[in-house]
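SAMPLE LOG
Freezer: B-3
Tube label: C17
Construct: single chain, 515 aa
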Amino acid sequence: MTANNKLVIFDTTLRDGEQSPGASMTKSEKLRIAKVLEKMKVDVIEAGFAIASVGDFESVKAIAETIRESTICSLSRALDKDIDRAAEALRGAESARIHTFIATSPIHMKYKLQMTPDSVLEQAVHAVKRARKYTDDVEFSCEDAGRSELDFLCRIIEAAIDAGARTINIPDTVGYAIPRQFGETIKSLLERVPNADKAIFSVHCHNDLGLAVANSLEAVQNGARQIECTINGLGERAGNASLEEVVMAVHTRQDLFNVSTRIDTTQIVPASRLVSTVTGFPVQPNKAIVGANAFAHESGIHQDGILKKRETYEIMRAQDVGWHNNSLILGKHSGRNAFKSRLEELGISLESEGALNDAFLRFKDLADKKHEIFDEDLQALVTDTVSMALNDEFQLVCMRVCSETGVAPCSTVTLRVGKKEVSANSEGSGPVDATYKAIEKIALSGVSLQLYSVNAITSGTDSQGEVTVRLEKDGRIVNGMGADTDIVIASARAYINGLNLMSADNSRQHPQSSV
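STRUCTURE (predicted):
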């Protein structure tokens, strides 16, 4: 690919995707996702916002020291302390990028920054120059560019490129843009900025009006050569442009797009499943590319056409994006090495022998309950195991549930709290409600349950159920996740996981907070 027809894929699942309420990830979970993104051949992985918290810094640092085939990026505001912290986290990277930003729209400059346009421009130039002291790969973003004045965008972009920025990002931060208008903005910037040829122009589109992918593709048609996107379209509010939709649109419509990516599309579905499992955000069945129904045909006319010639109703092959029968023929007699080998094939590496042993014991327990184990089962199993190991203030010891027609359901739960075992029982409107009330009698957490969601990991009545709960307390939101073939046990694990996350010190500064 030449520089003119190479489309850079910049994945921000680990940064902007994590800003979805309740989608916070641990360092080990971020590292698992980063390895899958590297395997997918993503060009740039935005690993986090290094100054936001100690956890974010450690995650960026671990990913920078591990990933070798993708550029690792850290976000920073246009502040010296942010840029210095990002550079420190990225020190071990084979290829590092600092991504600095400042708001450029009149409403943001006046009310959020309380700065004049000239001051904003001056600070942007200073930030780019400081970042260039650490790396030649500096990206500059005009936050809320979608509502910025074109003349000012031209001024600040020209100055940022002169200061050393090699990528210029035009974000539609609030999802306000319409495709034709957004494409014209990109075209005008490329035509009017005198030194535009010295930088790659990028777009970062939010999906508030359901137009993030359309806006991103229109930008490419008008000269943008980097798209910032996320797996499953994850992100704050309505999310970001979906990586899988952007990549497959370009891949499928080569008659219209004179660009190519280096993405290994067969890794799309595995990446989607991993992100869904780690965040606890299920993929809707009719989601393009990665939804369970994306390649399903029920209509008799469609089925007849598919049987005669696949292309009558399918514009791409399911296998090309990673859909295949990936059952793992392992059972209770399978050995530890076979289990470890399959985890490695899935890009899963556990941090210690103890963690591997714990996961293997849970695998054996699952194999006693299920005839056939799928890769999705392993992803959920490992995620559940790691969550239990990292967050151990409350641990489920045992539980007994009674649910009978005409009788109020009741649940008795025993938790390990520190070194002590504590039991409680309660009645409820159903077995899950009774279990949660019993847990609360022990935890006394004061949390509010905002969401309870159940998702079957695979098909069949012996499938594991994956339960996601969203808990809120004092404005803080966390997602807890649990999986088991018994849905009530999975529910208990999810709630306990959420309580442990809530009690952990995971405070994060919002990346778009005022500079």
